[in-house]
């Protein structure tokens, strides 16, 4: 049941700290080494993998996009992310050295199932990251990593997304451990960062009222854009998808670096644009690049809605609204930066009088191709 919340979606947003915590439960042995006991693929096979292909649809595919940044960085294995229905009906290069990771909340998405079958026919091993126990896709996979986020009822995916990212990160760290890409203490440190995320997600949820009131004031918006770089890019796309699904507003997520290659032409007076700002403490110039993107769109009249880390004063001069999130390394940021975007879409849809749990034309699990 809704547990006193207005909607299942609202409840599931609030479930997120617990969902991420549960995804992480029982993943280390007494010596602190990662174990994935529901992973039934020979370690030698996993050591010989030369490519990972993530297949998924919708929000689950965005979780895959986030995971690509982390897994490539940690494991130095090339990772491709592909929509399952596109993967299935072309002629993808997949063989015994390919590890396919299928991500799905329901475990029943037909597009993803068909892609899993196709990959296995080509000799690839398939690990699925699934929320629903006993569903079809895990049964047809070589191994499964359950997210343990609990049932997700609302059509719009929220807690499943955060737990999919978490599970994919655990898989990435497991591969890094197995293949010797990282020292045990580095892995332990990253696991500690992950274990600290539920507390920080809770903080973001507690700051939700400001997001809600901003959303209510924007219920007549006809288009909202979302920008991000690096892991902030799939977060931007996820924010846009939530708004389309729930509020029936035209929304698009862009890689911030792509702006000047076209999308900046969309910016005119009052155009709302969300920008996900990476940690200012991160390496390279990611942060300053995004801050200049905010300046560029602001100068052209955009209304800027900025998601930034606590203490990041550099965005203040160019932001119409700022949604603060706790400080975390950039790779962990999607687990926080997504939350205000979920709350925004939900609150705006509610302000328009729409049913947030059951948007028009959509089904919770898409069991036809
Ligand atoms: O059950 P799955 O994770 O396989 O579902 C995939 C998509 O259909 C799903 O994420 C969809 O995009 C959601 N409605 C997004 O909120």
TrEMBL record:
Catalytic residues, chain numbering: 364 (for fru-6p isomerization activity)
EC number: 2.6.1.16
Main location per the UniProt record: cytoplasm
Subcellular localization: Cytoplasm
GO function terms (MF aspect): carbohydrate derivative binding; glutamine-fructose-6-phosphate transaminase (isomerizing) activity
Substrates-to-products reaction catalysed: D-fructose 6-phosphate + L-glutamine = D-glucosamine 6-phosphate + L-glutamate
One GO CC term, this protein: cytosol
Span of domain SIS: 41-181, 214-359
Keywords: Aminotransferase, Cytoplasm, Glutamine amidotransferase, Repeat, Transferase
GO biological process, any: carbohydrate metabolic process
Source organism, top-level taxon: Bacteria
Enzyme class per UniProt: transferase
Role description: Catalyzes the first step in hexosamine metabolism, converting fructose-6P into glucosamine-6P using glutamine as a nitrogen source.
Assembly mode: Homodimer.
Protein name: Glutamine--fructose-6-phosphate aminotransferase [isomerizing]
Originating species: Paraoerskovia marina
Gene designation per UniProt: glmS
Full-length numbering of the shown residues: 253 to 621 of 621
């Amino acid at each position: 049941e809704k547990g006193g919340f207005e909607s299942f979606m609202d409840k599931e947003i609030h479930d997120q700290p617990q969902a991420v915590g549960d995804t992480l439960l029982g993943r280390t042995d007494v010596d602190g080494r990662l174990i994935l006991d529901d992973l039934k693929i020979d370690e030698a096979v996993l050591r010989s993998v030369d490519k990972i292909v993530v297949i998924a649809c919708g929000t689950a595919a965005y979780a895959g996009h986030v995971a690509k940044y982390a897994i490539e960085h940690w494991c130095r294995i090339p990772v491709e992310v592909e929509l399952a229905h596109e993967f299935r009906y072309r002629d993808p290069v997949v063989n015994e050295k390919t590890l396919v990771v299928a991500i799905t909340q329901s475990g029943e998405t037909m597009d993803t199932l068909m892609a899993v079958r196709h990959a296995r026919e080509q000799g690839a091993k398939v690990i699925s990251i699934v929320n629903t126990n006993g569903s079809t896709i895990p049964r047809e996979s070589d191994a499964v990593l359950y997210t343990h986020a609990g049932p997700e009822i609302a059509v719009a995916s929220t807690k499943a997304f955060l737990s999919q990212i978490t599970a994919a990160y655990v898989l990435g760290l497991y591969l890094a451990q197995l293949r010797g890409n990282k020292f045990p203490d580095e892995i332990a440190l990253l696991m500690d960062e992950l274990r600290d995320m539920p507390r920080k997600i809770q903080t973001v949820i507690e700051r939700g009222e400001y997001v809600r009131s901003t959303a209510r004031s924007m219920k007549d918006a006809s288009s909202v854009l979302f920008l991000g770089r690096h892991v902030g890019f799939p977060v931007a796309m996820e924010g846009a998808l939530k708004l389309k699904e729930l509020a029936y507003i035209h929304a698009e997520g862009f890689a911030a670096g792509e702006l000047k290659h076209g999308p900046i032409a969309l910016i005119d007076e009052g155009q709302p644009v969300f920008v996900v700002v990476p940690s200012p403490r991160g390496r390279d110039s990611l942060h300053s690049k995004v801050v200049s993107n905010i300046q560029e769109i602001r100068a052209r009249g955009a209304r800027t809605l900025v998601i930034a880390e606590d203490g990041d004063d550099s965005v203040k001069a160019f932001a119409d609204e700022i949604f603060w999130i706790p400080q975390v390394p950039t790779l962990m940021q999607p687990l926080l930066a997504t939350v205000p975007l979920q709350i925004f879409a939900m609150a705006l849809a509610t302000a328009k009088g729409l049913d947030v749990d059951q948007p028009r034309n959509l089904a919770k699990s898409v069991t036809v191709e």
